[in-house]
Amino acid sequence: MNLPLHCLRALMPRWLTMLSLVLCVQAGAQDIVTDERSQGVAQAVFGIVSYTRWPVEPATIRLCVVGPTEYADEVLKGGQLPGERKVIVRRIRLDDPGLTTECEGIYVGLLTDSAWRLLVGRLVGQPLLSISERQELCQIGGMFCLDVRPAQVTFEVNLDSVARSGVRVNPRVLRLGRRKGGG
């Protein structure tokens, strides 16, 4: 179909408007999906934290976020656990000396394997909960590793790492996760 030039000029602004509207709707849908994933991650993280016990039970649980993250937006807001306990969340540098003394748990973002191994070396003997956005970290010492999908957030659990961590996690939570071998 060949339209005269004056018709094409008349249709062009409408076509561009419609195209930009479609692109905006698609971008908005992506934001919604990411937000839903972030909310699912927060629900999983705070669920795991709420069923974790430390040798000395803190009144407020300090969760430290390490490394760049993809799904931590809602986690960073902190949360209220059942009862009186709160979770306060803050970002912390990987090399911060307070990582092992000012945190009851760590939420690990997209660290490289070598950076993770250095961090695990610092965590030995510390009663710290670890939750990661990278599933692969459960194979090298991580406790809980999230599997974030469009419709749901699940997790893997490394039972050896949990047993060595110094924290106790309710067995029902451990049964919910897919198990990984040695850490």
Could you say what the CATH topology is called?
A: Rossmann fold
Strand order of the largest sheet: 3-4-2-5-6-7-8-10
SSE order, as H and E? HEEEEEHEEEHEHE
What is the CATH superfamily?
A: Response regulator
Strand content: 15-25%
Radius of gyration from CA coordinates: 22 Å
Rounded mean pLDDT is 81
Total individual domains: 1
Number of helices: 4
Distance between the termini: 65 Å
Amount of helix: 25-40%
* Named CATH architecture: 3-Layer(aba) Sandwich
Major sheet characteristics: 8 strands, mixed
In terms of structural class, how would the helical and strand content be classed? alpha/beta
The count of β-strands is: 10
Low-confidence stretches: 11-33
> Based on CA inertia axes, which overall geometry fits?
globular
Task: Please report the first level of CATH classification, the CATH class.
Answer: Alpha Beta
Describe the model:
The protein is of the alpha/beta class and 183 residues long. It has four helices and ten strands, in the order H-E-E-E-E-E-H-E-E-E-H-E-H-E. Strands 3-4-2-5-6-7-8-10 form an eight-stranded mixed sheet. It has a two-stranded antiparallel ribbon with strand order 1-9. Strand 3 (79-80) and strand 4 form a beta hairpin. The longest helix is centred in the N-terminal third of the chain and has 46 residues, at 5-50. The protein starts with a helix and ends with a strand.
Could you list some keywords that capture this structure?
183 residues, alpha/beta, Rossmann fold, 4 helices
